[in-house]
Specification:
The protein is mostly beta strands. The protein contains one helix and eight strands. The protein has one helix spanning 2-19, and strands at residues 21-28, 34-45, 49-55, 59-68, 73-82, 91-92, 100-110, 118-124. The longest helix has 18 residues, at 2-19.
């Protein structure tokens, strides 16, 4: 019975991971309002939601700005503290239809010793 439960959990995690696409990694330094950009050489299309996974250090993420291929921007207010190893909820992008992302800008800061950076992986679906 335990094996079936763990197999079901593993299947659900696999389905969730396969439904999302890794978009890139960014780093935030300790100083206030640090910003880092993930820029795509070829726009990433069909993305309607973003998720942030914080690795290595805790981080305070103020907001995420997304520039679309048509030049428009979407500012997503996050304003949340993430401990190491935690994730955000799926954050909806505004607008209708397929969205082609040109760049993602993350604004916030990390916690801990000076010179140490929080690493943030960004996923889309």
């Amino acid at each position: 019975m335990k094996f079936k439960f763990f197999a079901l959990v593993a299947l659900l995690v696999t389905v969730e991971a396969s439904a999302s696409e890794f978009l890139g990694k960014t780093r935030l330094a300790r100083h206030r309002d640090d910003r880092d950009v993930i820029q795509f050489a070829v726009p990433k299309c069909g993305i309607s939601e973003l998720k942030l996974n914080v690795e290595v250090r805790a981080a305070d993420v103020d907001h995420v700005a997304v520039q679309f291929a048509n030049g428009n921007w979407d500012y997503l207010m996050v304003r949340d503290h993430f401990s190491r190893g935690s994730s955000s909820r799926w954050i909806n992008l505004r607008g209708a239809g397929d969205r082609c992302l040109k760049k993602i800008l993350v604004i916030g800061n990390s916690e801990g010793l000076p010179g140490r950076q929080a690493k943030i992986s960004i996923f889309g679906k």
